[in-house]
Amino acid sequence: MGQDVELKLDLAGEEIVDLVAAGLVSGEPVVLARHVVYYDTPDRALRAAGFSLRIRKDAEGYVQIAKAVGGGIASVFARPKWERNVENDTPVLDDTTPIRAFLGRRADEIQPVFEVATERRRWSVLWEGTRIEMALDRGSIVAGDRKAPIAEIKLKLEDGKPDGLFSFARRLGAVMPLRLGVLSKAERGYGLTASPARAVKADPVALVADMSVSAAFRTIAHACIRQFRMNEDLMEDGGEDAVHQARVALRRLRSAFSVFNLLLEGETGARLADEVKWLAGVLGSVRDLDVLVARCKDDALRARLAEARATAFREAAATLAGPRARALMLDVEEWLVCGSWQTQRRTREIRTQPLADFAAGALDRLRRKVKKGGRDLADVDDEARHAVRKDAKKLRYAAGFFAALFDRKRQKRRYGRFIDALEALQDRLGVLNDTADMPEVLARLGFDEKALTAFTKTEPQSSAGMLAAAAEAHEALIDTKRFWR
């Protein structure tokens, strides 16, 4: 496992300390200047099929690299990479790669899409008995008239235990504002060719039936971390969509901890779950104000709420930039790679059971909680309804995590109906929860009870009507057939 560990760390700013002066590296680095051009068709057919095509120019000449990067048609090829020397920056698309066979005449439409120019400085580092290859990349990505800077560090474990690599990453983070990197240069380049994203929703989780339960948890957790980090990078302008999706990513990660809790017993897992909850709460204060601003019908009050929201966002941004938040994703990543939860004897039976069986059992447990908690939903108090809402969210996220394992035609149909019913329940419980929480949130912001009148007209139904609708949605969900059975 140790030999496969790599870490990418994004610099939050472009200022880079003198690594030699800081005592982190020694000696002169190997310096490599590279210019890479990525190619695709105008409608991005290569990317959709799971291929990438690039030509790299460095001191040794031109190298063309075609690669199966996962998903699409490329996933059927056992060989992941086709590399050859070429004379210049014009792609050679013959039978040495599958690209022309796949595209046919459309291969003639392939053209440059974006280019990446970097200077790489590379050191070999010995840290706490661990040999690490460290590469510092600086440069830019250019796609048409759009440009993005590159400032990132890659760490590759060459010899020793993974713990040493993470220890060195933390030492780097103590002298530079680093965050865990999740995007490749190719992904960033393609991002420049599209309309700027306001937020990133969760992608389907790529689980397969023969995957171990441990590997499934790692895959799910990595997907959540990726979604969070991508939205964190989009939050700089304060957009509410990115804030919301970053918070969704953290809630999904917390749900993953809960779904796999029988596998993850131990102090480290509990501490990390609490830290993820803390960070979600930081963003929650901003999200609460987004909801109030959107529902407020009084212009003067809405302006005051917008000002409070701006203050809350600045405070959240400062927290995200701080050492505790920056270290959290790295801590989770280390625990996923090195944690003892993967080898504990008492969880061996859980780890070795078929993944589909584990998933079905987890979904059954969560459904039972929602079913039991939702009995007499119209007659329970706000706290009990909120508990049902949280359990319904966990069930919704777990269903998304495991959907790929139940992909027969009938199961897919049932999945769609089940999610529709679950979302209907969540929507109705969400309205009830927002209404119940509003007085407390407004009071916390220093507003008196009169402020509530600015929101009363936003609800088209009476309280009794909303409760009845929620109870009806709960009954419909319980009557909906389970897609995993």
Automatic annotation (TrEMBL):
Keywords: Plasmid. Residues 2-196 form the CYTH domain. Residues 210-485 form the CHAD domain. It comes from the Bacteria. Transmembrane segments: none annotated. InterPro entries: CHAD_dom, CHAD_dom_sf, CYTH-like_dom_sf, CYTH_domain, YgiF. PANTHER family: INORGANIC TRIPHOSPHATASE (PTHR39569:SF1). This is CHAD domain-containing protein. It comes from Shinella sedimenti.
